[in-house]
Amino acid sequence: MSNVVSLDSIFGLGELAPPATMPAAPEAASGCSSSSCGSSDGPADMDPAVWEKVKNHPCYSEEAHHYFARMHVAVAPACNIQCNYCNRKYDCSNESRPGVVSEKLTPDQAIKKILAVAQEIPQLSVIGIAGPGDSLAANGRNTFATFEMLQKKAPDLKLCLSTNGLALPDHVDTIAQYNIDHVTITINMVDPEVGARIYPWIFHKHKRWTGLDAAKILHEQQMLGLEMLTSRGILVKVNSVMIPGINDEHLLEVNKAVKSRGAFLHNIMPLISDAAHGTWFGLNGQRGPTAQELKVVQDACEGGAKLMRHCRQCRADAVGLLGEDRGEEFTADKIEAMGAIDYDDEARRSYRDHVEAERAGRHASKAAAQADVRESIGFTVDPILIAVATKGGERINEHFGHAKEFQIYEVGPGGAKFVGHRRVDQYCEGGSGDVDTLDGVLAAINDCTAVFVAKIGGCPSKSLADAGIEPVDRFAFDYIEESALAYFKDYAERLGQGAVQSRAGQDAVIRTGALTARRA
Amino acid sequence: MAYKIKSAECTVCGACEAECPNVAISLKKGTYVIDPAKCTECQGQFDSPQCAAVCPADCCVPA
Q1: For chains A and B, what is the number of CB pairs under 8 angstroms?
Q2: How far does CA A389 lie from the centroid of its chain?
Q3: How many angstroms away from the CA of A508 is the closest CA of chain B?
Q4: Which among A435, A402, A198, A184 has a CA at the least distance from the CA of A314?
Q5: Cα separations (Å) of A266 from A184, A250, A256, A313, A359?
């Protein structure tokens, strides 16, 4: 059966047994029971009720994004504002960025597609509506029609929507009525002067508004909608597009404003800007930030509203784990050919049980690895960045040449944490490596000290070493964070002996072009 | 007195259909069209034609 095949495939190379035969999670090093340290209780700083809502949502929990998949259905093409970073005339299956889709769907088509994907991908936990326009424009008609049917047909899937916030106050009651627990608002400014440089116009109360008036109305609606949602206990994620020279420093103000209104998570994303996309910013030479510029703003916001750093800026019809897009497997033609599809959540339930067991004890084992580093080297060595080739499960389980992105971890005496990802073109296609692609990979992870892989060939290995980035395959199939801490301990010793050099001050390039690599 | 949609520039997003106070806009063979018999250019209803005000491609124009 196809769903069993795909369930097995994510466990990878036999390192994990299927759920039914999986042994209990090993006792954590610190000896505490899984009931107090396990994933079922979530992180110490999170309300258990909130953890219950986010633990399986890949966009709301960094940890969940290693295990769970999301799917966007493109039922909402209409929009009520114009943004300078968006041009919805462009429709290309080789591109991955918000607002881009290949096929618009009716609510009926969307339900059929969701049921088909749910049968094939047991990691699926969330259905989101993120456009390609605004999910609440045109009165949110298609959005709510889709969720109404979905709630009845597949009640185990979480519902989620994304909006610019302009029409949000009018729809908060409906959102609550359909048990939509997660709402994302894109908020790029809290000052209309800044907003006027991002939004040329909005359509509100039967009128097109421009300039400061437009930005002021949008800002007021966004803040009102945010307050209305959080007062009802609905989790709100705020997305902000970082636009160098326009709102980069201003995002600290945005972070404070949304935190004070109860936003759960703040996601600062780099502007994707390219003349070929036909956007106003793209055509007028507005650049996006570098990897380090983005990280500086994100780091400056730490301590305010909790930061999300694992966003992949998905297409409005993305399907799969956050780092992948399996949309091409589920085009309208292919779904039509599948015939009638019944709802069956057995594979998803057994996958969720498996993940629950896998995650139990992980928090304690990470803490033990961190304590080991702190005891042996103290706080004398600055943290480093490590690029990781992974296909999920918090493990180093992807070959260097097959990686379409690298996850970036910052590791130091304070622990190992996920701080971002870098998209790359797949280096190895059809068995041979491509030198141009390798240069792109080197530029994308140039600020990293090491790259962790399951396997790597001799040629790319040498190029990486020549560029000062150490290729590391000795942690193949192990957990990322524990391996990163073990590596850091070793690195600190070698640094003390003068055997390695620090890569502080290096920057990296955020890749924004079309994805040309095919799925492995 | 009516508006029309320049189909070559239309993105088929449907924003106009939702705003039209006269239900004059519908999807025909994959593209939105305005029924000139129903279109009033929103005179007496709104400050400006709603389809043109909301259209992201600026393709709703006087016929």
Answers
A1: 49
A2: 15
A3: 35
A4: A184
A5: 10, 14, 10, 14, 25
Tokens of A400: 């260097």
Cis before residue A132, ω within 30 degrees of 0? yes
Task: Test A208 with B14 for CB contact under 8 angstroms.
Answer: no
Residue type, A335: I
pTM here? 0.82
Show residues of chain B in contact with A89, CB under 8 Å: 11, 57
- A127-168 confidence digits (pLDDT tens): 999 878 899 999 999 999 999 999 999 899 989 999 999 999
- Residue B36, C-beta contacts closer than 8 angstroms, at least 6 positions apart: B2, B4, B24, B63
> Do B18 and A77 make contact, defined as CB atoms within 8 angstroms?
no
Measured in angstroms, the CA of A334 and the nearest CA of chain B are apart by 20
Contacts (Cβ under 8 Å, ≥6 apart) of B37? B24
Query: Domain limits at A486?
Result: 361-496
Q: Which of A79, A203, A208 sits opposite B13 (nearest CB)?
A: A79
Identify how many contiguous H helices and E strands chain B contains and give both numbers.
Answer: 2, 4
- Nearest by Cα to A416 from A371, A357, A475: A371
CATH number at residue B14: 3.30.70.20
Candidates A139, A170, A208: best to mutate against B (most CBs of B within 10 A) is: A208
Total domains present in chain A: 2
B23 lies in which domain range?
3-56
Is B61 domain-assigned?
Answer: no
The sign one gets for the Cα dihedral A313, A315, A320, A324 is negative
User: How high is the ipTM of this complex?
Assistant: 0.94
- Reported as half-sphere exposure (CB side, CA atoms, 13 A), residue A506 has a value of 20
A367 and A304 part of one domain = no
